[in-house]
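Sample pair:
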Amino acid sequence: MKGELFLLLSLVCLLPGACGCPEKCHCHSSRFVDCSQQRLAEVPSDLPPQTLTLHLQDNQIHQLPAFAFRSVPQLMTLNLANNSLSNLAPGAFHGLQHLEVLNLTHNSLLSLDSTLSHSLPQLRELDLSSNYISHLPTSLAETWENLTTFAVRQNRLQHLDRALLESMPRVKLLYLKDNLWKCNCSLLGLKLWLEKFIYKGGTTDGIVCGSPDPWKGEKLLTIPHELYRPCPPPSPDPVSSQAQQPGSAHGVALTPTEIHSSECELKPKPRPANLRHAIATIVITGVVCGIVCLMMLAAAVYGCTYAAITAQYHGKSAAQSNEPGKTAGKELFDSSPA
């Protein structure tokens, strides 16, 4: 009798809307829960624990507290797009050890928690597009081993440290368009990383410079390496530098102009000699010299030939002019008396 009752309860739990489905949500076999477009201000607390896919897009959720999804530990896909999220509490996604897809597009996020990878170790796709993110952590607390897609399109990013991307060793799709990228020396490391990423088969939509003016609208990957100088080290505190450096007793401090000149900025400089150009120059010079030598050789051969022909012609003429004199002398000699 108890076995039949348990079977009956199990069948009832498979029906849509049964076994604790939130009032404003639609549950499909308790595995797929759709709570989109319900004007929700927070995550429902009575979600079915068997939920694998949860749609919360197009609501009015402003923040996520810690352990916001503790009731759905088996969750694999979470869609929070088009809400009003501006704050993600540390540990907001704690407990989602199986989550693979997270969509946070079209919100008001300003940054990304550096411990997010610790909460979501199995995450494969993270989309942070269309937010107000101006800063991303230098690196994550742990390596994001399984992340293959990372998108931060349409944000306010000016810089992105390559260390963050290096913590995603398996990323294959990288979307970075429509940010405020500042193409100065701070972005050189990212440029070098992207070149290596593309060489290994990765796909990216590229970075278009938003500043400074000489590079505005240019693609980062097309700017030659030679135009970047290494970023100078951070300027020391004027007060501490006076106390530590010799000669600081004279009260010499950095002027505002000197401080400004040490800021990291892109400064074009004369490009060094290019090996291909040098080789081409040598080849062209050799060809030209060869042609000139051939022309000189041809001129010499022509001159010698002309001189030989001329000398031969004059020799024949002289021989012909001497023959009548010899004949007349011979006749005179023969006609003399014996």
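The chain has a mean pLDDT of 80.
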